[in-house]
Amino acid sequence: MDDRPIGIFDSGLGGLTAVRALAAAAPGESFLYLGDTAHAPYGEKTPTQLRALSRQNTGFLRALGVKAILVACNTSTANAMDTMLADNPDLPVLGVIGPAAEAAAAATGTGRIGLLATAATVASGAYERAVRRLAPEASVTAVACPKLVPLVESGRVSPDDPDLTAAVAAYTAPLLAAGTDTVILGCTHYPIVRDALRRAMGPGPAFIDSGAASVGALLRTLEDLDARAGRKTPGSRRFFCSAGRDTFVKVGSAFLGWDISAQTELVTL
Ligand code: DGL
Predict the structure, then answer these.
(1) What is the value of pTM for the model shown?
(2) Domains of the chain by range and CATH?
């Protein structure tokens, strides 16, 4: 048993999709969440920049004494996993792409999988490789969605927001045309605008939430290491962001369904 907190990071609000799943599945686990809002969006950055930012984030969480790190950011997972694993040989460090690809391979009936992700995730080809390993006959139609993260980070998440509606319509059109039956929300921000995506795509395709999918893998890893929290009471929760605390607290509280104001600190990275 290990009552130390789990460290979780993303470029901003997106990793809260993993937090919500973790808090529901394992309320006794404590966690520290870092949203590097000062440097968001990550999706437009180069692999070299992403390695440096990912190293910065794992270093921040490590210094606070975490027992494991969940990289709740597809863009970091796709571009910097090797760096993070090499930097932290003594700590379990898990990404989101493997679990999401597994869930998509299990969900698809037709083998036509859609991927909505950031430009840097799409450019990496990481999802195509992960899906090909699990379902060699499946096809992946990938669309980069650069407008979505800035909209989420500025709190424009209503399915009635005209800019969000227009962006989502344009990004989902190629997936509808390709007849995808399963769509990987391959950026942890996207489940926050799930309603807009569902409205654009209709009830047909299954949506794979990459942040939520990774929580099962994280808890299994902790169980294998006998490192689950032993307490029966709720774990402690702390949030850090590196810019825009007010918006982070407002959008984050609305998404999680509890007020994170007293638990959120602004930090300089
Ligand atoms: N939420 C992150 C991801 O899953 C990063 C998005 C961004 O900052 O562009 O890729």
Answers:
(1) 0.97
(2) 6-95+212-266 (3.40.50.1860), 97-210 (3.40.50.1860)
